[in-house]
Design goal:
Blueprint: H1 3-23, E1 26-27, H2 28-37, H3 45-57, E2 61-66, E3 74-79, H4 81-105
Antiparallel strand pairs: 1-3, 2-3
């Protein structure tokens, strides 16, 4: 991933994680593994964990501690109603931006 991709990803990672959690509850390592499987190989676990702390503090997720076979209990995150509202806003913003960028790329910047 190039520097530009990394910078753009920083601005959208919260929305991506909320979208993942809208599909099913998950813990930090699961989210990181999914992102890497999707080609986001340079995302550090620490980045995902810091983001999960932020969205927990902002009230977008519910957290359940689940026993782990190895080590301490895992924090499993699930999207709550406030998080779903935030995700909906992310998708509205994403649609707005992607439509404008597509027009710009096609040379139709006057619309």
């Amino acid at each position: 991933m190039g520097k530009q991709t990394t910078e753009m990803l920083k601005g959208t990672l919260e929305g991506i994680v909320l979208a993942i959690l809208s599909e099913r509850p998950a813990y930090g390592y699961e989210i990181t593994a999914w992102l890497r499987d999707q080609g986001f190989v340079e995302i550090a676990e620490g980045t995902v964990y810091a983001l999960l702390v932020r969205i927990e503090q902002r009230g977008f997720v519910d957290v359940e501690k689940v026993p782990s076979e190895k080590g301490p209990p895992r924090k499993v995150f699930s999207l709550n109603a406030q998080g779903q509202e935030q995700l909906n806003e992310f998708w509205r913003t994403w649609s707005f931006l992607s439509e404008r960028l597509d027009k710009l790329r096609q040379g139709d910047s006057q619309s």
